[in-house]
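Just curious. Protein, please.
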Amino acid sequence: MAQNLLNEVQDFCERMLLPIPQTVVESNDAQVQQIKSILYEAGNSLAIRGEWSRLTHETVHTTVAQEDQGNIYEITAGNAATAFRKMKNETMWDRTDRLPVWPINPVHWQRIKSIAAAMPRYRYRLVRARLLFTPTPPAGHQVAFEWVSKWWIQDGTSGTIKERFTLDTDSFLVERELLKLGLAWRWRKAKGMDYAEEYEEYESRLAETLGHDVTRDTIYLDQTEPRARPGVCVPDYSWDL
């Protein structure tokens, strides 16, 4: 069973020799509420430290024939309303044309808007949370992309992700061990205690976890990366003569 808010707070209180609560969200104990608040702070901080695979979502957007494709929070709202934090670079593809849609920086955007010639393929940028394409894409194309959520709490009843704790049974999408370490050093800091050792352990474990959280391409220094080409495909390794 996944660790939930109540279990986590109870475990922490047991380690710190504190009274073990039977509830967290509805508790009137100031100390329990402080622990919940610090746990929430630790989770929020952890969620924005990387492009976590657990917080990654995919959205397929149907284009409209105009530059402004809409509010990015509304476009991604089918997964988790207002939870959008950032795009994952180079993940946007026009699945209708089977071609990539590349991001563009403000300098190049302004250059393109100032000249008569249009780009051969449209590109995108985010401005005031609006998803903009240039040149104007045709309507009805299916454009898919991956993005990272800033929400890391999973509802204990519905299983949907949400911004804040509302149930003792709410669980976590961030790495539990990192969350525990983040809670430990922040709690010690809040109590005026030395927290250097706990903080160093947290940062070390965080760097290690970030290093292997997502899959990475193989880098070929001799430029012999296998690529799909038309023709007869001969598999590697041994084969019958």
